[in-house]
UniProtKB/TrEMBL annotation:
Its EC number is 3.1.-.-. It comes from the Bacteria. It comes from Rohdeia mirabilis. This is NanoRNase/pAp phosphatase. Residues 27-166 form the DDH domain. It is an enzyme of class 3 (hydrolase). Residues 254-325 form the DHHA1 domain. Coiled coil: none annotated. The keyword Cell cycle does not apply. InterPro entries: DDH_dom (IPR001667), DHH_sf (IPR038763), DHHA1_dom (IPR003156), Oligoribo/pAp-PDE_c-di-AMP_PDE (IPR051319). GO terms for molecular function: hydrolase activity; nucleic acid binding. Keywords: Hydrolase. The keyword Hydrolase applies. Residues 289-308 are annotated as: Disordered.
Amino acid sequence: MWTPPALDARQQEAVALIGAARRPLFVGHERPDADVLGSQAALADGLSRRGAEPVICNPDAPESGFSFAAPACGFGWDKGRRLPQHDLIVFCDLSEVGRTAGLAERLLASPAKKVVVDHHRLPDDPFWDALFWDVEAAATGVLAARILHALDVHLDAEIARGVLLALVSDTGFFRFDNTNAEALELAAECARLGVRTADIFRELKQGREARFPAALGALLTRTEYLDEGRVALIVEERELGLGGLVGVGDLALDVLRSVGEVDVALHLRELEDGRCKLSARSKEPAEVHGLASGLGGGGHSRAAGATLSGPLPAARERLLRELDAVDVRPRS
Ligand code: AMP
Ligand code: MN
Ligand code: MN
């Protein structure tokens, strides 16, 4: 049985704002991932059961392959125009307004109250009016389920699909060390409602293009070992032409972590616009949050990221310098 933990006063305040909104606007981080989309889908469908008219506007369109999880209102994205009409803004899976990229200015200019629903380490400069936060939650989708429960919205198969999508993706199908009892209990609740992890695995991980294996191979052959083999790094130039291929970087990072000596796995990828995206992962007890935040990013203890300015060789140098400066391997 999934029994959500009791809400603290700050969380109750956030729930009250969400429950009172007629037209909540949901916003996630740039290049929205399955946790953004799954938590938004669950909240949007759940709140519409109570008569609200939710709307979703993310900084970017969802990657292909997420249409199976779309809520009734659809996954909208920024087309550079005015924000959709709204009386509340709910930020899902982010707590730094800068991660909404081109939307940030318009969001901050809105007179509507702003609620953050998130499980990342919090930044020092809050921009929100209310916060529903738990760093122990495996995914923002878990927080979505807790909010709906607090509003007396029962999980059904549709809502559960969003929750489980968020859960499986942020826990790597329950393999990462953020997987906890609540994640498993909530997943069991979703299974009881007929939502199968196998179906989500099929949608997310088994619909790839024929060039995927060769692309993974190309990334893996770029593996460099640093720090006596404890750090593994893949640097991906734009010329490699893998830019649009979803999931290949995550899988490469999984392979790097499969090496016994490796406790920090890094993927530095040159984006189309010349900036460089760092994805960092680690094995317990190594931590990569400090590394990512030192480079202007953030995330979780063992899964973090940052966007660096280019060109790629300079970004690589900055990464290596930061790696020297921070202690990714705290010894207790
Ligand atoms: P990624 O490597 O993009 O899958 O991100 C790993 C984790 O770090 C996710 O929880 C992201 O939300 C977070 N993250 C990625 N990039 C950034 C960034 N620039 N700033 C803050 N957090 C980030
Ligand atoms: Mn995310
Ligand atoms: Mn997340």
